[in-house]
Design goal:
Layout: E1 27-28, E2 34-39, E3 55-60, E4 66-67, E5 76-80, E6 82-89, H1 98-107, E7 109-118, E8 130-133, E9 144-148, E10 154-158, E11 162-167, E12 172-175, E13 186-190, E14 197-203, E15 213-216, E16 218-221, E17 228-235, E18 251-253, E19 256-258, E20 260-267, E21 274-275, E22 278-280, E23 283-285, E24 293-309, E25 312-318, E26 324-339, E27 342-348, E28 356-363, E29 368-373, E30 376-382, E31 395-402, E32 405-410, E33 413-416, E34 427-431, E35 440-443, E36 446-449, E37 458-462, E38 469-473, E39 476-479, E40 485-487, E41 489-491, H2 494-501, E42 564-570, H3 585-592, E43 594-602, E44 606-609, E45 615-616, E46 624-628, E47 633-637, E48 643-648, E49 653-656, E50 667-671, E51 678-684, E52 690-691, E53 694-696, E54 698-701, E55 710-714, E56 724-725, E57 727-730, E58 733-735, E59 737-744, E60 754-757, E61 760-761, E62 769-777, E63 782-785, E64 788-794, E65 799-805, E66 813-815, E67 818-824, E68 831-838, E69 850-853, E70 856-862, E71 868-875, E72 884-887, E73 890-896, E74 904-911, E75 920-923, E76 926-932, E77 944-949, ...
Parallel strand pairs: 6-7, 7-9, 8-11, 9-12, 10-13, 11-14, 12-15, 13-16, 14-17, 15-18, 16-19, 17-20, 18-22, 19-23, 20-24, 21-24, 22-24, 23-25, 24-26, 25-27, 26-28, 26-29, 27-30, 28-31, 29-32, 30-33, 31-34, 32-35, 33-36, 34-37, 35-38, 36-39, 37-40, 42-43, 43-46, 44-47, 45-48, 46-49, 47-50, 48-51, ...
Antiparallel strand pairs: 1-4, 2-3, 3-5, 40-41, 86-87, 88-89, 89-90, 89-91, 91-92
Length: 1198
């Protein structure tokens, strides 16, 4: 019966019409010869050799008239159909089995890349071996890929001798990843227990090789280590034997191999070598014996241009005759590179004493150009054979044999740790006697034998002569045995080995410190091995891909960073090229730590610092010192919104700019950024305090004077208070900053100890500090000493301060500082203060127990609508048990020039002391030349005042101060006073005022007082033994103006021992008392327990001390004038004073103690008279000129 069919299941190509041919169906020819396509379906088998649903082109000759049955007549021939694209393999797929898919591939015309996607988890119906044959259509484009489908974990398992054979087929890839990554989702498993078995055999034929074959991302699993001969065998037509045609460009990558004799065995033909193989990143074996290998990890023979890299080989163990190898490179090999492999636990337990090795180079005739570099070899051992020194006798890390030339053994790390059972001659590197002269270049290796069994154990063993070494040097040899090496005979130590080789001059004998016995990365505790290698152009990276030093690489496979210990140079030719840059000294230190104290010597200007690497905490308590070397040096760079040099939780850091070890400033540090720059920051981390950090003898220059130069606080960029102790900032010149030094510590007992001393902040103009020289906040125990601060000038409307003790600063001392030229030119709400002490007013965070002592403050001026002060105390500053002491300070030239009449005050006490006894002590201070523009007002904020008390305070002790209001204000309408007690002082007994000298010697101010009190007399717990003097109409004010001392005494109800005497000062601003002319004040004070010395440190008289800040001894008496011819009398004087001389008197002048000339008279006679009747009572100086002589006499006017 004749039937014509459509083709519902498959589109047939290259046919005139479509047919579906089934068993028992006949086809009548309709004429001459024709062709058609058919597809076998499940209803029958037209061709019993064809798998289901495989397309064919069928050519029917004209001689045939009919087709019957299930076989092809002779007149019919099959033609392969074209394949291209992706086909599924598995139940319900395009192919039920991979065998069927491969069979079709073998006969198909390949017109594009073909992929067989495995969709099943297992394939139990395969027919092995699955043999992929050469296909003429294969190319770099027309490839075959076998891989698991997306999301599928597949296994192909069988017990045949061969599971897969790649028989001269090209461009075949087995890819085990189901997602296009490096995942391993396909397992090839051989369960065959006997016979010569291989999971994959890549074979050549007599006419073609298998080229561009790739195995990647697969798991290879044999039956047992002893039964599966090889997982991947590459050879000729006979399994395991070389053919005459090479298999080229094999790639074996990222696979896992377990259970077998050889994971990879590739053997080519000696005179036509396999070319271009790449074996990389595979994991071979296991430390679990049953999962390892019983002969070799991999073997490559008769090959060229081979790369073997990144492989990890574990657990190659044999217990019978033969030599086990992690890796064998043998026969005729050329241009072989073996790098970055890790080989561990290779052993031979045969009690007869057979050998084992990590890498065996056994090159034959014609071999050349072999590089073994950056490999780890560990724990190679055999049972042991005492009499043997070859590869077949004992465990050796690397064995070099054969006759290759150009063998380079570079940067390998070998460590034998596992013991042999009996003694022998194990060695980290074994050179066989077969090696020919001049062939070996062995450099930069670490060769260690740490075995402890009895017998010889070597770092290096050479059975050949020393002629084999073309170069051998820069190696580290170490052994626990009695002899370091063997060359002709045992060589006990490095010197003996060097003598034997005639080379190795730079090699070492040092025990390296590895991470472990199986991980030969170097720990940071290898300072003695750091940078001890030599540059080799062939090895630019280490085993991990880290770039090697281009000047001083490390020995061994690992380019490590040793913990620092000692002195290192920083500069283009130094140990480090930079401090803060990538690869610089700080980054290195942070990475490796230290094993001892470290010094970085700056050997040249570092002009390109980026600041990206700080100094982190150094474990072990070791110190770091940064200093110049050879000459003055500069560190500069640009770091925006951060410090150029900074520490992060680090302690024991010293930046010392001195070359001499003294006080020369020979190191400059400059941040050139104009975006929020800082120069140096010591930063703490969390609540762990940093300690013992020092910045000294440097020149610090910031990039902007609206940003702070030196900062000490938490490492956070915001001004977060930190935790620190024993920080020193000493003898630095600081320029171009908003604040020169800023320090903020978290308020807490004992936190924040810092010493800031001998620093200079005096630059002017563009390099000036613009807000504050030194700012200290929250510190317990600051010492701010002997700093020089000046030229803080600006026209901006904000407060400028020389030194600022901010909230929570306690138990601190500010002493010996010189502060001058703090100026604000703004007429807005700006201020200028020499020393400013501020705190919150809530009584919780206080400034207590602080001492402001022996500071010189001058030329503080402001044009703003606020107070200018030499020293200002603001906020809660004392408790019932502690307070603040202002002692021995010299304050002069305090001015406010605002025409609105805003205050200038020497010491401005605007605090909130709560101490009933000893809250704020003002002792031994000198204040002079304080004035403002002048304002007709009675407020203390309107005019110039020496000391002002303001605020609801108590506990003031004002002892032995000297104040001279000597400078007239610009306008006369005003009210000035040496001391002003405002009405805000209300507590009874708040002020104890004794032993002071208060002078107002101004001459133009309308109301000028020695003392002014808007508070009632009850605020004085004690007021006595003071000297009040004013050139004005009234001595003082208390409730009302008090013209005389008596009136003042009446107002206070006290002051019985006080005086109204004009003292004689050395000058209007130097308030030391002269030794002559002050006898009326001599010894007129009362002893005070708090005052034992004066402003100069002179000891006070214990029973009759002087008033004022200066303890003096008067030498003035009328009889003192007898030793000269001039007589001045009477003295004291009421109205007229007479001057006689034995010779002519030219002229007579009379001066007040403030330096004002009162009288000038020409005499030109032997005697004269001066009218002093209208002069105020007090002390005066009469200057008599007679010829070339000038005589001065002090007189008292009553």
């Amino acid at each position: 019966m004749n039937q014509f069919y459509s083709d519902p299941e498959r589109v047939m190509k290259k046919s005139n019409f479509r047919r579906q041919v089934t068993k028992g169906v006949s086809l009548l020819l309709l004429g001459a010869a024709m062709s058609f396509s058919y597809a076998q379906n499940v209803r029958g088998n037209t061709d019993p050799n064809a798998p289901a649903k495989i397309s064919y082109d069928v050519q029917i000759n004209a001689a045939a008239s009919k087709i019957y049955g299930s076989t092809f007549p002779a007149a019919i021939s099959k033609k392969a159909v074209a394949l291209s694209g992706t086909y599924t393999v598995g139940i319900g797929g395009d192919y039920a089995t991979l065998s069927a898919a491969v069979a079709d591939f073998n006969s198909a015309a390949i017109t594009g890349p073909v992929t067989f996607n495995l969709t099943d988890a297992t394939y139990p119906s395969e027919t092995f071996p699955i043999k992929i044959e050469e296909n003429a259509g294969s190319s770099a484009t027309n490839t075959l890929t076998i891989k698991p489908a997306a999301g599928v974990d597949a296994m192909i398992s069988g017990n045949a001798a061969i599971l897969f054979q790649i028989n001269a087929a090209d461009y075949v890839t087995f890819d085990g990843s189901n997602n296009g990554s490096t995942s391993q989702n396909l397992t090839l498993n051989s369960t065959a227990a006997t016979g010569t078995t291989s999971i994959v055999w890549v074979s050549s034929t007599s006419s073609a090789g298998a080229d561009y074959v790739t195995f990647k991302n697969l798991k290879f699993l044999g039956n047992t280590p002893s039964t599966t001969v090889g997982h991947i065998l590459v050879s000729g037509p006979t399994l395991g034997s070389p053919g005459t045609i090479p298999n080229n460009f094999l790639t074996i990558e990222n696979n896992i191999f377990n259970r077998g004799q050889n994971a990879i065995f590739a053997v080519g033909f000696a005179t036509n070598q396999d070319d271009g193989a790449v074996i990389k990143n595979n994991t071979i074996g296991s430390t679990t014996l049953a999962e390892g290998f019983a002969f070799r990890g991999l073997a490559v023979q008769n090959a060229k241009n081979v790369l073997i890299t990144g492989n990890k080989i574990d657990g190659v163990t044999i217990s019978s005759s033969g030599t086990s190898s992690g890796m064998l490179i043998g026969a005729a090999v050329n241009n072989i590179t073996v790098t970055a492999n890790k080989i561990n636990e290779v052993s031979n337990t045969s009690t007869v004493g057979w050998g084992s090795n990590g890498i065996w180079l056994n090159a034959g005739t014609g071999s050349a150009d072999i590089l073994l570099a950056n490999n780890f070899v560990t724990n190679v051992h055999s049972y042991g054979y005492a009499s043997g020194g070859t590869e077949t006798d004992n465990g050796n890390g690397i064995v070099i044999g054969g006759v290759a030339t150009g063998v380079k053994i570079y940067h390998n790390s070998v460590a034998l740790t596992a013991n042999q059972n009996v003694g022998g001659r194990p060695s980290a590197l074994n050179i066989l006697s077969s090696v020919t002269a001049g062939t070996l270049d062995i450099r930069n290796n670490i060769l260690v034998n740490n075995q402890t069994q009895t017998g010889a154990r070597y770092a290096i063993y050479c059975g050949a002569t020393n002629a084999v070494f073309s170069n051998i040097n820069y190696n580290d040899y170490f052994t626990t045995g009695t002899s370091l090496g063997f060359l002709g005979s045992a060589r006990t130590d490095l010197a003996a080995w060097q003598a034997a080789t005639g080379k190795d001059a730079n090699s070492l004998n040092i025990a390296p410190v590895f991470v472990s016995t199986t991980d030969l990365h170097m720990t940071s505790a290898n300072a003695s091995l750091d940078n001890k290698g030599t540059v080799l152009v062939e090895v630019t990276k280490d085993i991990d891909g880290t770039m090697r030093s281009t000047t001083k690489p490390d020995m061994g496979a690992h380019e490590f960073k040793a913990s620092l210990n000692g002195t290192y140079t920083v500069g283009s030719t130094g140990d480090f090229a930079s401090l803060t840059n990538s690869g610089g000294a700080f980054e290195y230190l942070n990475t490796t730590g230290a094993l001892g104290n470290v010094t970085f010597n700056i050997i040249e200007d570092l002009t390109g610092e980026t600041g990206i690497n700080p100094i982190n905490a150094i474990t072990g308590g070791y110190s770091l010192t940064i200093k110049p070397s050879g000459a003055a040096r500069a560190i500069s760079g640009t770091m925006a919104s951060n410090a150029l040099i900074r520490t992060v939780g680090a302690s024991n850091i010293t930046i010392d700019g001195s070359l001499s070890g003294g006080t020369d400033r020979s190191l400059s540090i400059t941040n050139l950024s104009t975006t929020g720059p800082q120069v140096v920051r010591f930063g703490s981390v969390g609540t762990t305090p940093m300690t013992n950090n020092t910045l000294k003898n440097t020149i610090i220059t910031n990039g902007l004077n609206t940003s702070t130069a030196v900062v000490i606080h938490d490492d956070a960029l915001a001004t977060t208070a930190g935790y620190f102790n024993n920080i020193t900032i000493q003898n630095n010149e600081i320029k171009k900053a908003y604040m020169g030094i800023y320090t903020a510590s978290a308020v807490g007992a004992g936190n924040g100890g810092i010493t800031i001393k001998e620093n200079n902040m005096t630059a002017s103009g563009a390099d000036a500090v613009t807000l504050a020289g030194i700012y200290v906040q929250g510190t317990d125990g600051a010492v701010i000493q002997n700093n020089t601060i000046s030229n803080i000038t600006s026209t901006g409307a904000y407060a400028r301060r020389g030194i600022w003790l901010a909230t929570g600063t306690v138990n601190s001392t500010v002493s010996g500082n010189t502060i001058s030229n703090i100026t604000s030119g703004s007429s807005a709400g700006s201020a200028a203060v020499g020393i400013f002490i501020s705190s919150t007013n809530n009584g919780v965070v206080l400034n207590t127990n602080n001492i402001i002592d022996n500071n010189s403050i001058s030329n503080i001026s402001c044009a703003g609508t606020t107070v200018t002060a030499g020293i200002q105390i603001f906020g809660a500053v004392a408790t019932p048990t502690s307070g603040i002491s202002l002692t021995r300070n010299k304050i002069t030239n305090i001015k406010n020039t605002n025409s609105g009449g805003y205050a200038a005050i020497g010491i401005y006490l605007n605090g909130y002391s709560t101490a009933a006894n000893g809250g704020v002590n003002i002792i031994n201070n000198m204040i002079a030349d304080v004035a403002n523009y002048g304002f007709n007002g009675t407020s203390y904020l309107d005019n110039g005042v020496g000391i002002t008390f303001n605020g609801a305070s108590t506990g003031y002790k004002i002892y032995n101060n000297s104040i001279n209001m000597n400078t007239n204000q610009t306008v006369a309408t005003g009210m000035t006073a040496a001391i002003n007690v405002t009405s805000s002082i209300t507590a009874a007994g708040a002020i104890d005022l004794r032993n002071n000298i208060f002078v107002n010697s101004q001459t133009t101010t309308a109301n000028r007082y020695a003392i002014y009190s808007s508070a009632p007399a009850t605020v004085f717990s004690n007021i006595d033994y003071n000297d009040y003097y004013s050139t004005g109409a009234n001595l003082g004010y208390l409730g009302s103006a008090r013209a005389t001392l008596a009136a003042w005494q009446t107002a206070t109800g006290k002051d019985a021992n006080s005086l109204n005497i004009l003292p004689v000062f050395v000058s209007p601003t130097d308030l030391h008392l002269t030794t002559t002319g002050n006898e009326a004040l001599d010894n007129k004070g009362t002893p005070l327990a708090e005052v034992t010395i004066d402003i100069d440190g002179d000891v006070r008289n214990a029973t009759t001390p002087d008033m004022g800040a200066d303890e003096f001894t008067s030498t003035l008496a009328v009889s003192d004038n007898a030793k000269v011819a001039i007589n001045v009398y009477p003295n004291p004087v009421v109205d007229f004073v007479n001057i006689n001389n034995s010779s002519r008197i030219d002229s007579v002048e009379v001066y007040s103690v403030s330096g004002q000339k009162m009288v000038a008279k020409t005499v030109n006679a032997n005697s004269g008279q001066i009218d002093m009747s209208k002069m105020p009572t007090g002390m005066y100086i009469i200057s008599v000129k007679a010829g070339e002589n000038v005589h001065q006499v002090k007189v008292i006017k009553k």
